[in-house]
Amino acid sequence: MIASIGRFAAANRRWVITAAVLFTLLAGGWGTGVFGAITGGAGFDDPASPSVKADQVLAGPLGRQADDVVVMYRSADRPVTDPSLAGPIQAAVAAVPRTDLERVDTYWSTGGDPDFLSKDGHATYVALQFRSSDDQERVKALQAVRDSFEVPGTDVRFGGVTAMTEQVNGLTGKGIGRAELLSVPLLLVLLVLIFRSAVAASIPLAVGAVVALGSFAVLRVLTLVVPVSSSVINVITILGLGLAIDYALFMVNRFREELAAGASVDAAVERTSATAGRTVAFSGLAVAISFTGLTLFPSRFLSSMGYAGVSVVAFAVIASLTLLPALLRVAGHRINSWRVPMPWDRRGAALRPESHGRWYHAAKVVMRRPLLTTLAAVALLVGLGAPFLGVNWARPGDWVLPSSADARVVTQQFGTDFRQDPTRTVTAVVTLPSPASGQTGPLGEYAARLNSVPGVRDATVTNTHENLARITAYYSMDPMSREARTMVDGLRAQTPPPAATTRFTGMPASRVDIVDMIGSRAPWMALFVAVVSSLVLFLAFGSVTIPLKSVLLNLLSLSAAFGAIKLIFQDGYLHDLLGFTPIGAIDANFPVLIVAIAFGLAMDYEVLLLSRIKESYDRTGDPDESIALGLQRTGKLITSAALLLVVVVCGFLASSVAFLQMIGVGLVIAIVVDATLVRAVLVPATMKLLGHRAWWAPAPLTRIRRRRGSR
Fold first, then answer.
1. pLDDT tens digit string along 612-663?
2. What residues pair up with 155 in beta bridges, in sequence order?
3. Do both 206 and 297 map to the same domain?
């Protein structure tokens, strides 16, 4: 069927290319409107968690008691109580439109509360609470009044959760353009070096551009069906570009091989679609399955990442199986035109037997001592992953921003210059069996018990409504620290009034709920991805041994990435180079995202390598020779594909948001380890150990596969 698609696309190449151009122009216009179509916010929380349930109650008559934004005023030369500053600050605050504001508190409106003044008297803050309980609506409300707070002669900064969300949104939006600006010229240079032909190099880049721009349209259509997190666009569009270039690289390389073997242009296109196209289809299916695992999580961030990932991967596969054959047919023998000579090219290298190739000899060396090689490589990967055992989990917060961002600066100033941080509050929502007005004593005693938890202070009943009560408390520690987790556990362990139930919310409670949600669903995701990926590999190769081996090796390559991320982002190694401030924790969303993306990419390379090994094995029946020939035919290609993908992914490192940097570093390490140590060492070694058993399957399964039409 895939060969038929390629044959049809080649025969109707003008229509296919015209449609692709028109679609790309449409995507560049209408599709980029996805930035305005995403209104659901980041969506990291589990909608069914206790903290979210508490927030839903607080959105009703009971009301919230939270500072969404703190506007920090600082003067270098005068106390803020000096009339020359106090007057303008009060006037600016008084002129702020109150349409979307529930509460505005200042040093002066609170009767001179000393907590609103810094220790040196040169700084004060204005605490804002918005009416809306939706984070993106609060961001819009902040943007509408931001300029009203400007006061000449003061340094004005905006902190708090809503300000942090606004600043993260702004930086992630800039990240896409910066990543593409950095990666595209380098990709073109690398493609020319790989193919030695400007024509051949331009085809993967053209397909990548169509997929990258088309991804915006795909995502915008997706927003019409499901809520999409505002954090999805960066990851998905960059990944779409990388996958498209990878797939195009596979197919262009195979097309050139077929032409070199004497095939006509039409036959080469059809053969390329039947072989490399089939590999692309199975590879895309494996990557899509990995992303499907993310839909098992209830948080909007992970589930929408799953939906978006599947959609964009499917689009990349469709573009590769239709547009690429059309472009290859147009290029024909000109695919090798505009050749770029390289000083290290050697005459006759292309005519050497494959048995004289470097990758062939590397495979033979590995297969001389397969057991020792396997044990050594496994020990190395396990050792690299060992630091991950000491991980401390966090949720996204202002720590993902650069140290110069307003929200980070305000948090730092509260920690050093003020008596307390007003944003560090935790709220208890108490549901009583009878009206709260008659439960004053038990509620007061409960607040006292909460106040006895280490790190908690000033726990007070701040509002009641019917049978509901709100208790607000302050805490002192970093909300992402291990101590904050202990505090939340301590609060939840306190006995509420008789027959009452309590739910806690606030950054520490939200962080605990997110970590628990991910921890409970992650094993199911891993099981789903492993089982369904194994099924895909069985359908591709007719073996039950190959899928098990592949899943285990892919998990080993991921362990190295996890260990490195812990050392870099939690322990702080290389933080100066990457430009972030470590907080002693790692975002809990990170491992499942890396599993979804890197596991799929690892399957990408696995399918490519095993396809060529199986071709040779079916022809010769010699497992050792097939392994060596398979690696010889794909080693350079896999290395090149990994290099190109690393260049694309390195765009994340150019971001100033630590969360995106974390994804970039994790993917770069996983890709490099998988394309080198795993594909070039572990795969030949383990395949040698398995021998003919690598392609074994029970007879009933083989019959079922044949009935389904798989070869």
1. 899 899 888 899 999 999 999 888 888 988 888 888 887 777 777 788 888 8
2. 74
3. yes
Report for 291-295, 483-487, 568-572: range of highest mean pLDDT? 483-487
String of DSSP letters for 97-155: --TTEEEEE-TTTTTS-GGGB-TTSSEEEEEEEES---HHHHHHHHHHHGGGG--TTSE
pTM of this structure: 0.85
The amino acid sitting at 207 is V
φ/ψ of 505, rounded to 5, equals: -140, 175
Q: For the chain, what is the total number of helices (H) and then of strands (E)?
A: 25, 10
If asked whether residues 149 and 264 sit together in one domain, one would say no
- pLDDT tens digit sequence for 26-75: 887 787 777 666 655 567 888 899 999 999 999 888 888 888 999 999 99
Please check whether residue 533 is in contact with residue 547, taking contact to mean a CB–CB distance below 8 angstroms. yes
Measured between alpha carbons, how far is 454 from 606 in angstroms, rounded to an integer? Answer: 51
Query: What span, in angstroms and rounded, lies between the C-alpha atoms of 681 and 557?
Result: 12
Across the chain, what does the average pLDDT equal? 86
In the chain, the number of structural domains is 3
445 and 491 together in one domain: yes
Last residue of a domain, one of 508, 533, 553: 508
Which domain range does residue 266 map to? Answer: 1-37+196-348
Are residues 226 and 151 part of one domain?
no
Instruction: Give the sign of the dihedral formed by CA 541, CA 542, CA 545, CA 549.
Output: positive
Examine the domain organization and report whether 28 and 133 are in the same domain.
Answer: no
At residue 36, the pLDDT reads: 66
The whole-number pLDDT of residue 660 equals: 80
Q: Look up tokens 């050594």; give the residue.
A: 376
Q: Which of 639, 601, 705 is nearest to 286 (CA)?
A: 601
Residue after which a domain boundary falls, among 508, 536, 567: 508
**Residue-level pLDDT at 377:** 93
CATH of the domain at 447: 3.30.70.920
Residue type, 9: A
